[in-house]
Design brief:
single chain; 199 residues; alpha+beta; 8-stranded antiparallel beta sheet; 26% helix
């Protein structure tokens, strides 16, 4: 699997991402249009492409970042995270038990039109990911590659408290080793990715 595909978009949106993004775009346009008396006069169909592009970016959440944040709590990884362990060039493969990962994000989209008040559209993304047969390749205190046998995910996206869509993914196989674009330091104080904004 290519590095560019290591994000939650494929898990959350499934095999028909354009349809899902279109649904979110329609909801965002509706919320923005009703947020001010002046905004209904805007030609919303002409803005749909720009809004859809930003909503697509909203789902570009690096899966690896979430995994590393969760795995920093594991003793085996904390030991491997010490660069002095085993001397220069120390290399470890760390098998992890099958486990679940839950994540929640609250991105927002600001619709800004000259001379008009800013319309903020708030989303909430909730995801549950089941990981199976995971192996990390650790070298000199950094994660260099990830091997995942297969995974499954559930996803729910809401907009201003209204559910836009819910889905469960089919089983996705990730054969082979995924080399990370850059080494990821193992830090016991690491944090998972928090809320983010789409502008």
């Amino acid at each position: 699997m290519a590095n560019a595909g290591i994000n939650l978009k494929s898990l959350l949106l499934g095999d028909t991402p354009d349809a899902t993004i279109s649904t979110c775009t329609a909801m965002a346009s509706s919320v923005a249009r009703h947020s001010s008396d002046a905004l209904p006069e805007i030609d919303w169909p002409s803005l749909a492409g720009d809004i859809g592009e930003k909503i697509g970016e909203m789902f570009d959440i690096p899966l690896v970042d979430l995994l590393i944040g969760a795995w920093n709590d594991l003793r085996a990884l904390r030991d491997c995270g010490d660069p002095s362990r085993g001397g220069a060039g120390a290399h470890d493969t760390v098998p992890l038990v099958d486990h679940d990962l839950e994540a929640s994000f609250k991105p927002h989209l600001d619709v800004i039109v000259a001379g008009m008040p800013t319309a903020r559209v708030e989303f909430e993304i909730s995801a549950g990911i089941e990981l199976h047969a995971v192996v990390l390749v650790v070298e000199n205190g950094t994660i260099r590659a990830v091997r995942v046998g297969f995974c499954q995910a559930t996803a729910k996206v809401s907009c201003h408290g209204v559910t836009v869509f819910e889905r469960s993914s089919r089983k996705l196989d990730w054969p082979g080793e995924i080399a990370l674009p850059r080494p990821v330091p193992l830090n016991p104080a690491g944090e998972t990715r928090g809320p983010f904004a789409v502008r």
